[in-house]
Amino acid sequence: MAAVSLPIGVFDSGVGGLTVLGELRRRLPDQDFLYVADTARVPYGRKPPEMVRRFAAGIAGFLLSQGACALVVACNTASSVALDLLGNLSVPVWGVIGPGVEAARRGPISGTVGIIGTQRTIESGAYQRRLDQLGRSVWARPTPLLVHLVEEGLADSPEADLLLSWYLRDRPSLSSLILGCTHYPALRPALIRVLGPEVQLIDSAQVVAEQVARGQLPGGGRGLVQHYVTGDVGAYRHTASVFGGVQGEVSALSLAELAAFELATDSEGSALHRSGHETADEVALQPQEDDERDDHGDESARGEQVPVVPVDTQQAEDTLR
To answer: Domain 8-96+206-292: which topology?
Structure first.
């Protein structure tokens, strides 16, 4: 009897998660994948945590209904506010925050670690607290306009250099910089021009793929990918060209279909959350402090808060005009 093919489910608010999917496929070439791009509700980075948790619950429920044997949350914002909820489902779940910190731990052992990401990711403190536990000096900056820059195909452009220079203008001396959004690997050339080659750029995708590959999942298949898109399919194909294009079939996914899963998954996840189960991402980064999360899934600060440097988004937009 032929082995049953069980796909791994991957999701993001848009096309940025394709960077994680690409690394997963390189590591697991025979594995089948399902990828959900929630482009109808992108970006997640400025939305309330409870809304993002609801979105993540619905997508997770849909992927499980399609037979996913594991989930990869290829979105920093969703990883920062919803991983506790999803980690209580019946399959292994990986986010991108823990692997990003692990990648930073493997890097330079001294110096300040910088973090750039969406407003919600930086405000959640998910990266900062874990790095603080490792005794690292941290500087964090929300950089919300970079996602739009990348999706417009301007990642390697004078406009990218200008915006990055503005966002990073008052940075301390950095030994490394965590790219805390899955869109940001596309900005590597511009970041090297702005920061210099001596600053290590850290992308969590490789470590995520390493951890999933070690998971010994009952997957398998023929290396196929099925994409589900909540927004316009043609626009998704066009924007995905920034990350090398789309390989596999693409199907439309209605928000109405996801809405039914949001309620069911959130109810199940909330109940399981009280049982204290851990995500694969959390197990890989023991010790964790799950008991210090508040009722909304955000972790409260332990000890001294690492300051987040605010950004005037309107001023940044004016700078680019």
So the answer is: Rossmann fold (3.40.50)
